Amino acid sequence: MTKAEILEKLSEIFHEVFDDDGIVLTPETSADHISEWDSFNHIHIIVAVEARFGVKFQVAEVTALKNVGDLVTLISARLAA
Fold first, then answer.
1. Which residues, other chains included, contact 71 with Cβ-Cβ below 8 Å and sequence gap of 6+?
2. Model's pTM, two decimal places?
3. pLDDT profile of the chain (81 residues), mean per 10
4. Which of 15, 30, 31, 66 has the fewest CB atoms within 10 Å, counting from its CB?
5. Contact 17, 48 (CB under 8 A)
6. Dihedrals φ, ψ of 28, to 5°?
7. In degrees, to the nearest 5, what angle opens at C-alpha 10 toward C-alphas 12 and 49?
8. Domain boundary assignment for the chain
């Protein structure tokens, strides 16, 4: 799966979690860009990502994420393993 395909699937997850089809994700998108992206919704995003992609993350990996690009890279690495 390409990084573009991962980003597309992440967009679907963000639309569901935030109930907002207007969100446009880029690799630079972070919690600073989406006002509803708080710690509670962050957990929802991670759980949805793990379920959708069939991967599991370590807590340290999740806390190290700075933006959507970091998440795409992490998912890509997990899928390649």
1. 10, 49, 65
2. 0.93
3. 97 97 96 95 97 96 96 96 86
4. 66
5. yes
6. -85, -10
7. 105
8. 3-80
Of the candidates 58, 63, 60, the one whose C-alpha atom is nearest the C-alpha of residue 81 is 58
3-80: CATH topology is 1.10.1200
Using the structure block, give the residue that is written with the tokens 């690799």. 27
- H/E element, 62: helix 59-64
Distance (Å, rounded) from C-alpha 17 to C-alpha 3?
A: 21
- Token digits for 73? 């890279």
**Beta-carbon contacts of residue 20 (< 8 Å; ≥ 6 apart):** 14, 36
Residues in the chain: 81
